[in-house]
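Q: Given only this backbone (367 positions), what sequence would you predict?
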């Protein structure tokens, strides 16, 4: 029986491994002749192993090869390009786009018509995305691969809902509390629907007056949800997701002890998605730059109990990714430094570079 190499996101339940699968440090993750199921596939992708060998039972051309061409040099195909070419990403994007329209309609209905919030209907689409991508690191891969698409208020709200849900899983929250986080993410910026579009999409820096109007979105959003029959934590998240633990946030300048947990988590998801997304006034920032910026604020503006596990898991999601260093060299992330999350160990050809011990050298781009 012949074998074929497939991208892990295109692996199917029932495929049979034609070779052992090893972790980057050489340990066997799955043995040859293992019959793949969803949990095994998720475990392999969670270790950021991109390709596996399976027995070819039908000799059909793979979908990825059709996209990239038979003669494509897979060594030179960038990681996110592979994801975008995969069957799983196409399904993710289709599901994502379909649900954005439903969520947009639901949020607009609440704002424009003062309609009751149908929580079950609102969260249905987000849960569909989560269910189809139960591996949290894989879901981050999908979101990162969507960065080339427009980031509107509605897209941002869905992203924050997904990121908050993942963080809730990493923090081992109950299913009920994760549901609250997900709904809070969907509704947190509902007030922005009432902000003038010329302010939301302004390509330059906002004036003081414009910024003061922008900040009103938390009050506008709270006014729309305060009398709705929903959990108080969701209402608090709409009002308080821009508060900072050191008291420098708005609208009240609350300090950590007075900021609810859900609002603190939505704040983390909100900042991460905003910084890693393209905006009308700038391109998307490099995730390692975002990790560095957020880590510097981890013990002041954010709740360390929540932000540190988040940043560690996000940084780990880039293991095995190709990156460009600030000196122009191209390499692959092989290990994350727990005490310097934005400065991983990178392999450039045969050289292993510990960025935490190399002054002035950083990751400038994910490739």
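A: Predicted residues:
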């Amino acid at each position: 029986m012949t074998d074929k190499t497939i991208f892990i996101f295109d692996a199917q339940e029932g495929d049979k491994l034609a070779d052992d699968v090893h972790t980057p440090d050489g340990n066997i993750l799955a043995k040859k002749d293992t019959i793949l199921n969803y949990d095994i596939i998720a475990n392999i992708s969670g270790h950021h192993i991109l390709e596996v060998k399976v027995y070819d039972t039908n000799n059909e051309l793979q979908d990825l090869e059709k996209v990239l061409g038979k003669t494509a040099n897979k060594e030179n195909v960038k990681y996110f390009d592979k994801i975008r070419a995969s069957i799983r990403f196409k399904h993710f994007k289709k599901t994502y786009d379909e649900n954005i329209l439903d969520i947009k309609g639901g949020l607009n209905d609440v704002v424009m018509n003062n309609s009751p919030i149908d929580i079950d209907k609102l969260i249905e689409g987000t849960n569909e995305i989560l269910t189809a991508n139960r591996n949290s690191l894989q879901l981050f891969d999908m979101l990162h691969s969507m960065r080339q698409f427009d980031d509107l208020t509605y897209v941002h709200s869905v992203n924050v809902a997904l990121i908050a849900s993942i963080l809730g899983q990493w923090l081992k929250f109950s299913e009920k509390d994760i549901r609250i986080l997900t709904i809070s993410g969907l509704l947190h910026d509902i007030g922005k629907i009432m902000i003038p579009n010329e302010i939301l999409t302004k390509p330059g820096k906002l004036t003081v007056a414009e910024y003061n109007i922008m900040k009103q979105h938390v009050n506008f959003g709270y006014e729309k949800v305060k009398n709705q029959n929903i959990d108080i934590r969701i209402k608090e998240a709409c009002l308080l997701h821009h508060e900072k633990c050191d008291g420098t946030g708005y609208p009240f300048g609350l300090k950590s002890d007075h900021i609810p947990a859900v609002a603190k988590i939505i704040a983390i998801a909100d900042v991460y998605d905003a910084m890693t997304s393209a905006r009308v006034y700038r391109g998307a920032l490099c995730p390692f730059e975002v990790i560095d910026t957020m880590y510097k604020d981890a013990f002041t503006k954010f709740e360390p109990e929540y932000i540190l596990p988040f940043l560690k898991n996000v940084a780990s999601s880039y293991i095995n990714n190709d990156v460009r260093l600030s000196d122009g060299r191209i390499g692959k992330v092989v290990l994350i430094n727990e005490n310097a999350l934005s400065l991983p160990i990178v392999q450039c050809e045969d050289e292993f570079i510990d960025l935490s011990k190399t002054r002035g050298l950083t990751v400038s781009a994910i490739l």
